[in-house]
Amino acid sequence: MGSQQTIILVALGIYALVMVAVGLFTSRKESPEGFTIGNRNVGMIPTMGSLSSGFRDGAGLVFWVGAGATFVFGGLLWTFLGVLVGLLFFSLVGPKIREEAQRKNYITIGQMIRDRLGKNTEKTTSIIVTIFAVMLVSMQLYVSGNLISTITSLGVNTSITLVALIVASYVLVGGYSNVIKTDVIQFFLIISLACLPFVIKIDFEPFAKLENYKGYGLSTNIAFFLIGALYVIVSSDVWQRVFSARNEKVIRYGFPLSAITLSIMTLSLFFLGLAARQYLPTETEWGNAFFLIFEYEALPKYVLAYVAVVCIAITMSTLDTLSYLAASTFLKNILPEQYSDKKQTYVKLTRVSLGAVLIIGSCLATTIGDVVQFIFDAASLLFILTPIYVMVAMGWFSKNNRTDLCVAVSTFISVAVYIYMFMQGYFSDTIMIFVPVAVNIVLCSLTKIFTGDKKHA
């Protein structure tokens, strides 16, 4: 093993020990309420840090580093406009929802859907959320496992298992509270990557060339905007940040401000791609650039070790969030209520569920091929829930059995459309991932028109 690999391994080992130590230390006096939803007392900085670090995941890592390495900046502006719209939506509707969540002890958005619409829609949406969360868990494990495998002598499967064990060591003991606390540490690590230009020389000339910002056509530009907006709105972990916020100000101002920190994080990934470009083969494709940085040791050894730690922090910040989301949604919204109505029982079952999620995610991680296509395919499934989340949050549905059943059936139909389009390969055109979404918007709107005001509950 060369000195470069040794330095990187030591850096990664120190980072892992810090995460585990923080998780164990802070969970010693953790209450069941802290384990489940952070005592509903999460402040401005932790909320912003958790939001922005959660959005910047493994797929984004591969995508934006590759964009910087190949001078493809066209999707950045459209995506961030969408993200800002999504965060402003929460800034407007979030404060009242937070009050209701405190009053009714919500942990997941599925519980709010059940109270405002009905159990059929709760079960249907929660199954989709759980599937999506597990898929995204596998994505983070894939990226982090392949990164460790690239820079060490460990195999990919061993590396994936190692990352899963590290995350399990602090999430299982502290639950949601440890997700937030470690996200704050990871947030400062991730955003520090913006200092890269002060450490190594970076050629910023590509930023000054207008041709690098050209769009990909109207339909693709719209698709990038919608991806940014809808991903924020339908991410169930974002709703959990609403439920756990300390007060109205955290939501009103913290959510839109997190767009700034997320922008800085994304620019820092551009910087990384630009810095490494001069050392990579000229024919490098943008989807491969991230892993080649480590394979070719394209940066000074101490800088590369620091970058490796930051990249692992990026994947783990999303990994722990989604693992808890999958476990909590499964327990609170899919299993019968009696299994999780008591907090102590919920804590015990959550630990079992978290372990199961990480095991399943590790197995799925070995089957991923194209990392970016995988995230687009997974996101297109989650986006189907957009009209339900928005209409429920805005109070546009009247709760009755007929509406509940119709919305659940509408979602099943939209999922069927998704499966058909996925099997036929229609999602190769990015805008097409929104066809199942449009189907559910139309069906939910028709349900609202024809059944929304007829009380049958």
Can you give a write-up of this model?
The chain is mostly helical and 457 residues long. The protein has 19 helices and no strands. α5 runs parallel beside α10 and α6 runs antiparallel to α7. The C terminus is likely disordered.
Q: Could you list the spans in which at least 5 consecutive residues all have pLDDT below 50?
A: 453-457
Largest sheet: none
Strand content: under 5%
Q: Label the structural class.
A: mainly alpha
Can you write the helix and strand succession as a string? HHHHHHHHHHHHHHHHHHH
The span between the termini is 68 Å
User: With helices defined by DSSP (H or I, 4 residues minimum), what is the helix count?
Assistant: 19
- Helical content, roughly? over 70%
Average pLDDT figure: 84
Radius of gyration: 21 Å
Tally of strands: 0
Shape: globular
Quick description:
With 457 residues, the protein is mainly alpha-helical. The chain has helices at 3-26, 32-37, 44-55, 58-70, 74-104, 109-116, 119-151, 156-191, 196-199, 218-234, 236-244, 248-277, 289-295, 301-334, 343-365, 371-382, 386-393, 401-424, 435-451. Helix 1 (3-26) packs parallel to helix 14, helix 3 (44-55) packs across helix 14 and helix 7 runs parallel beside helix 18.
